[in-house]
Amino acid sequence: MTKHRDTRRGELLPGTLEMLILKTLSIEPMHGYAIAQHIHKVSKDVLTVEEGSLYPALQRLLLKRWTRGKWITTPSNRRVRVYALTKAGRQQLGIEEARLSEIFAAIRRVMEVPHRT
Asked: How big, in percent rounded to 5, are the helix, strand and coil portions of the chain?
């Protein structure tokens, strides 16, 4: 028997990537690759953030002033941009978390309706 892989596994709902990045940066400042790895690890390998999505999202967060970026040189002599959450970003994270809770509660209410047979 062949297993069929769900190609949608790991896809993020629109708008959730920015929220996940903000949440990740609420822990500590990180560079892009570390952000993607953190999300992948904490989601137990369910969510994968591709570079083609991550870096445009990071740029949007910088433009909105929810994050700030600082170029550093790593001990291995690589230049990386480290992103940190701003006060406005922390406030936005609170808004996003409240919105997500509201959406999950609404979905839960719909899913709890008994099936008709």
From this structure: 50, 15, 35
Structure tokens at 1: 């028997």
What per-residue confidence (pLDDT) applies to 12?
65
User: What are 58's two structure tokens?
Assistant: 């990071």
At 77, phi and psi to the nearest 5? 65, 35
> Which backbone phi and psi does 69 adopt, to 5 degrees?
-125, 145
**In this predicted model, what pLDDT tens digit does every residue of 72-86 receive, in sequence order?**
999 999 999 999 999
- Listed in order, strand segments (DSSP E) in the chain are 30-31, 67-73, 79-85
How far apart (Å, rounded) are the C-alpha atoms in residues 32 and 38?
10
Q: 69, exposed or middle or buried, with CB in 10 Å at 0-12, 13-18, 19+?
A: middle
Closest CA to 18 of 70, 84, 86, 66: 66
Q: Is 114 helix (H, G, I), strand (E, B) or coil?
A: coil
Give DSSP secondary structure letters for 31-53: EHHHHHHHHHHHTTT-----HHH
